[in-house]
Design a protein that fits this description.
Blueprint lengths: L1 E5 L11 H13 L5 E7 L2 H7 L4 E9 L2 E10 L2 E7 L1 H4 L17 H16 L10 E5 H4 L1 H7 L8 E5 L7 E3 L19 E2 L2 E3 H8 L2 E4 L2 H6 L10 H6 L4 E3 L29 H11 L9 E8 L5 H13 L3 E8 L1 H13 L4 E5 L3 H10 L2 E4 L9 H8 L2 E5 L2 H6 L5 H5 L6 E3 L4 H16 L1 H13 L5 H16 L5
Parallel strand pairs: 1-2, 1-6, 2-5, 6-7, 7-11, 11-12, 13-14, 13-16, 14-15, 16-17, 17-18
Antiparallel strand pairs: 3-4, 4-5, 8-10, 9-10
Helix pairs in contact: 4-6, 6-7, 10-13, 11-12, 11-17, 14-18
Family: Belongs to the glycosyltransferase 1 family. Bacterial/plant glycogen synthase subfamily.
Catalytic activity: [(1->4)-alpha-D-glucosyl](n) + ADP-alpha-D-glucose = [(1->4)-alpha-D-glucosyl](n+1) + ADP + H(+)
Pathway: Glycan biosynthesis; glycogen biosynthesis
């Protein structure tokens, strides 16, 4: 089976979040099920530099939103790629979506509309000798793909749209609509119109044959006003086509037994190697050298991630005897709050603003616990990395966090099933209570080691989830009338 995946980022070439990890890992996992995936991505400078002279031109699009663009094919780290080489749209250094001042590029509608249009053309056999059986689009940046497919004159192929975070919808003024090249009737309730605007995500949700989210709990949550971000009515109406499939991680990249970015390798069977990594984390973040538990954060510092809640209880964490390391960037006020915490609690709190892939591995390998107090979390990968590395996740009971972490309640502890700590609601008092529970568990070394080992044995790979995607692909393929 041949699948065209469409994504605005892909690991290891270009990454701002979990979308890139999924786009990079899922095609590799699907190969075991007889599914060959080619992924269409924008030709950002980092992508073009990485592929170098390995790419070959397969087609030229002479009028893609007023620009001439080439589609290149290349193979990189086991991934079969199609690269949309359109310098006027994508030859911009830095963040793929945001201008240097931090706001989204004013022509993002054009940039990612072009990505979707190119994908729809490829779906309609634009590449000689290769035609996909199904198209899988990711998030709002690729969400016009099923829209173009629906309104094209050619027979429609099955399409899937995966929502990685429904808060990001790609909503634009209706003045852009004439430039999209869609028929007039597409600007309607069963097309891209959404409360007087053009919405890429809403259009994709309306027209894709199936919708997936990145965890079963999130699939249910987005059908409610609390989490649906205004789209809950449409999603509820299409509930029979909505599937929650939890993300996995690349267990070759994230494996403490083989990870060459950490100080000392270890495994669930030989966990003592964590000690040297723990010492390295303490030295890197300037912490006191004692046995008190090291809590960690590797995250965007934003309201969604509950970082304001954590900032409010740093004093409680320290007073309970804990230490905290923070690695991340985000809202300026939250960055400053954690910088101030490090200044106010020297030796107990360490903060590094920014993101470093190697350091994130070190934190997972050396910290005792990781805090994920998200207000909503479609899936979350941080807690999966933590499970893999024996770093106990302390998570809000929402989305994929609720689906992947087994709370250390008495019943779970009694049968040695617990892998972390869940809490709810996302309020300072509740998080503070969860931190106290975690410290009590840490003080019981036998229980703590059992939780670490149980977490490290959890199957956080793509194997099971890729199987669910493969089943869904095949169900949709059977819906197509074959000659």
């Amino acid at each position: 089976m041949k699948v065209l995946s469409v994504a605005s980022e892909i690991y290891p070439l270009i990454k701002t979040g979990g979308l890139a990890d999924v786009a990079g890992a899922l095609p590799l996992a699907l190969a075991a099920y007889g599914i060959h995936t080619r992924t269409l991505i924008p030709g950002y400078p980092a992508v073009m530099k990485a592929i170098g002279d390995k790419a070959e031109k397969v087609i030229t699009l002479y009028d893609l939103f007023g620009e001439q663009a080439n589609v290149l094919e290349a193979r990189h780290d086991g991934l079969d790629l199609l690269i949309l080489d359109a310098p006027a749209l994508f030859n911009r250094f830095g963040n793929p979506y945001n201008a240097p001042h931090g706001e989204g590029y004013s022509d993002n509608w054009r940039r990612f509309g072009a990505l979707s249009k190119a994908a729809a053309d490829i779906a309609a056999s634009a590449i000689p000798g290769w035609e996909p059986d199904l198209v899988h689009a990711h998030d709002w940046q690729a969400a016009l793909t099923p829209v173009y497919m629906r309104f094209a004159p050619t027979p429609e192929k099955p399409s899937i749209l995966t929502i990685h975070n429904i808060a990001f919808q790609g909503n634009f003024d209706t003045g852009i609509f004439p430039w999209l090249g869609l028929p007039d009737h597409a600007l309607a309730v069963d097309g891209v119109e959404y409360y007087g605007k053009v919405s890429f995500l809403k259009g994709g949700l309306q027209t894709a044959w199936a919708v997936t989210t990145v965890s079963p709990t999130y699939a249910r949550e987005i059908q409610t006003p609390q989490y649906g971000m205004g789209l809950e009515g449409l999603i509820s109406a299409r509930a029979h086509t909505v599937h929650g499939i939890v993300n996995g991680i690349d267990t070759d990249v994230w494996d403490p037994a083989t990870d060459d970015t950490i100080v000392s390798r270890y495994s669930a069977h030989k966990p003592k190697g964590r000690v040297e990594n723990r010492q390295a984390v303490g030295e890197t973040f300037g912490l006191d050298n004692d046995d008190s538990p090291i809590f960690s954060v590797v995250s965007r510092l934003t309201w969604q991630k509950g970082m304001d809640i954590l900032a409010a209880v740093v004093g409680d964490l320290v007073a309970m005897g804990g230490k905290l390391v923070v690695l991340g960037s985000g809202e300026p006020g939250l960055e400053e709050a954690f910088r101030n915490a490090a200044r106010y609690y020297p030796g107990r709190v360490g903060t590094i603003i920014g993101y470093d892939e190697k350091l994130s591995h070190m934190v997972q390998a050396g910290a005792d616990a990781i805090l994920v107090p998200s207000r909503f979390e479609p899936c979350g990968l941080t807690q999966l990395y933590a499970l893999r590395y024996g770093c106990i996740p302390v998570v809000a009971r929402t989305g994929g966090l609720a689906d992947t972490v087994i709370d250390a309640n008495p019943a779970a502890l009694a049968v040695n099933a617990a892998t972390g700590v869940q809490f709810s609601p996302v309020e300072p008092w509740s998080l503070s209570h969860a931190i106290r529970r975690t410290i009590n568990l840490y003080d019981d070394k036998k229980t703590w080691l059992a939780m670490q080992k149980q977490g490290m044995k959890s199957d956080v790979s793509w194997k099971a989830s890729a199987g669910l995607y493969a089943d869904l692909y095949k169900q949709l393929d059977l819906m197509v009338s074959k000659p």
